[in-house]
From TrEMBL:
Organism: Glaciimonas immobilis
Limits of the HTH marR-type domain: 7-139
NCBIfam families to which the protein is assigned, alphabetical: HpaR (TIGR02337)
Protein name per Swiss-Prot or TrEMBL: Homoprotocatechuate degradation regulator HpaR
Record-linked SUPFAM superfamilies: Winged helix' DNA-binding domain (SSF46785)
Annotated GO biological process: negative regulation of DNA-templated transcription; response to stress
InterPro entries assigned to the protein according to its UniProt record, in alphabetical order: HpaR/FarR, HTH_MarR-typ, MarR/SlyA-like, WH-like_DNA-bd_sf, WH_DNA-bd_sf
An example Gene Ontology molecular-function term: DNA binding
Upper taxonomic lineage: Bacteria, Pseudomonadati, Pseudomonadota, Betaproteobacteria, Burkholderiales
Amino acid sequence: MKHRIAYSNLPQLFLKARERLMSHFRPILNHFGVTEQQWRILRLLDEYGQLEPRELCEMTQILSSSMAGVLARMEEVDLICRNRIVDDRRRVLVQLAPSGDQLIREIAPLIDLQYKFIEQAFGKPVMADLLNAFEGFIAAEPEVVLHVPLSPGPVVLQTSKAGKAAKAIPLARSDASSARNRKASKQ
């Protein structure tokens, strides 16, 4: 079967690469009873000292609806503490609690050693190239890449009952999947 898209599925490759990479670190996190989401937060707090929840969401790629629960559980087990900002009581800063700091001290040498093993397996140049490529891709301004022009909404061709004339009918986005389903069922 001929592929309809000429390019490799880059997002899927990123997901597979992430999964493969995490398979080397997951046993360490599991040993200490830390989830991947918790580790991403702990690592950032170790790097930056303290951050607001919205900053954590952006930097960890965790949705704010999930972040609230993750932070609450981390606070319950004394990994982090949250403090209101004096000048603006609506805002909160999150930082490592002493036991969270101790956990980082215990995990950090194991994480570094695992990175060293990965670097030995693939070589320093490959690791440096990967880091540079990812950092460059992330840092690139969105305006650098042109975007495909799209019509205001999906369009479906509709034929008359006699099957003679066809006309394009723009659909609201929510109607698009039901129109595709109707069209598929008629075939």
